[in-house]
Amino acid sequence: MGFRDKFKDAEKALTFNDVILLPGWTTLEPNEATVKIQLTKRITLNSPFLSSPMDTVTESDMAIAMARNGGLGVLHRNCSVEEEVDMARRVKRAEAVIIRDVVTVTPSTTVGELLKLMEEHHIKGFPVVGRGSKLVGIATWRDVRLAEPTLKVRDVMTKKVVTGDEDITLEEAKQVLHKHKIEKLPIIDKDKHVKGLITMKDITLKGDFPDAIRDEEGRLICAAAVSPFDLERAKALNKYVDIIFTDVAHFHNKNCFEATKKLIKEVNAEVIVGNIGTYQATEDCITKLDGIAGVKCGIGSGSICSTSVVTRAGAPTLFATSNAADAIRDHKSKISVISDGGIRNPGDIAVALSVGANATMMGNVFAGCSESPGRLVAMEGRYYKEYYGMGSARARKKRFALDRYSQPSKAINEGVEGWVPYRGPVADIIHEYVDGLKAAMGYIGASDIPQMWEKARLALVTERGYQEIAPHDIMTPGPNRLL
Ligand code: XMP
To answer: Which of 247, 291, 382, 423 is deepest in the core (most CB within 10 A)?
Structure first.
C-alpha cells in the first residue's frame, strides 16, 4: 500500500454531531416505546444507561441510585481493593429480600462497639449470637440509643426474638413484621443458627422503586471496574458484584487479552471488556476471549479526554459502536455493546443505540448529580460539581488506576479536570433522558431498542448544518444543559 492510499482508504470516524436520525413511518406514540434492554445473560436493564467507573462519578450512592432507576453503576477502581469491595458491599446491602451476610454481635459486645458497627455498616439492628452461634437476642437502635457505652449487649438486647424459618415467603414475613410491630426478622434454621435477615425497610423500598434492577436475592445489581491485571481485586469483588468491567483505555492489547483470559476463569461475575474502538478489536474479543458478556466501545470521545489531542489516536464512540456491532452481528455473537464517552443528551443516546449499542455509559452527565461523590461548589450564582478524567493529573495522583493508560512519560496526562453544572438527583436525569429517548424512538418508528437497530437511518450533517439544527438566532436566558 502506498502512503497516499492511507488517505484514499481512510475511514470516516463519524461522531455524534456529524449525524442526525431520519424520521421514519410510525404507527406508535413515544409513550408506547420501551427502553428495556438485555445487557448480559443475567441482566436486563429498564433504562439503557450506565454510570462511568470514575472517582468523580460512581461510588456506592451513585450505583444504588442507578440500579434503583433501572440502570447500572460501575464502581471506580481508583482506590484500594478494600475500599472498592466496601463500596460494592454497601450497594448489595442497600436492599435485599433476605440479607444473607448478616452482621451479628455477641452478648459481650459493648454498646460502644455496637454503635460503631452501626455507623460503619449503616445498619440499625444486629442479631445477637451466643454459644454455638445460636441466636440469643436482637440489639436494635431503640435498645441502645440511650444506653451507657460501657454496658454489654446482653444487658440491653431484646431477648424474646420473633424469628422466621427458611421457607418463609416475603408476604408472610411482611405480616409477621406488621403483627409484632417490629422492623427486623432474623431467619433461623432448626438449630437457631442465623441464616438471614428480613427488614421492613427492604420490603417497603420495593414499592418505591418499580424500575429497580435486582439480583435473584432481591439485592440491587452492581458492577465494578478492575484493571485486567489485578486478579486479586477481581476475586475480592466477585462475591459482591454482578458484572466486572476491565477498565483500560486501550484493551486491544496482547497483555490485556492474556490477563483477561485468566480473570474470566477466576470469577463467576459476568465480564465486560473495554475499551475498544474497531471492528478488528471486537472480532478478536469475540474469537479469543471465550465467555465475555460484552464490549465497551469508544476511545478518546469522553468530555474529559485529551487522549486524541495528545496522541492523535482514538476511535470516536459512534464509529467504535457501529464497528463493534457489525463484528458481533457478522460473528453471530450475542455479546452486548456499550457506547462510552461523549454522550450529552438523549439524542446522542438515540444515535448510539441506532448504530447497534445495547446501552450507553455516561460520565459527565452523572458527575453533575446529587449522588456523585464530591461537593457542590457555587460559582457566580450557579452550582457545579467537580469532574476529572481518570488520566488527568488529579486522578493519577491517587495512583490506583495508573495502569488505565500506558504512560511512557509521567508528564503526559490523557485527561483534564474541571467542573460540570449540578443537575439534581439521578432519578430526574434518568426520567428526562428516557423521555427524550422515547421521543426519538417515536420519530424513528421503533418500539424498542432492537427495532432501532433495524429501522433507524442516519443522515450526515455538515458543520454549518449542525448550527442550524441547534437553537439559533435567539437570545436565551442561560445555557441549555442538553446541548
Ligand atoms: P463522558 O463524555 O461521558 O465520558 O464524560 C466518560 C468516559 O470517558 C472515559 N475517560 C477517559 N478517557 N482520558 C480519556 O481518554 C481520561 O482521563 C478519561 N477518564 C475517563 C471513560 O471511558 C468514561 O466512561
So the answer is: 247
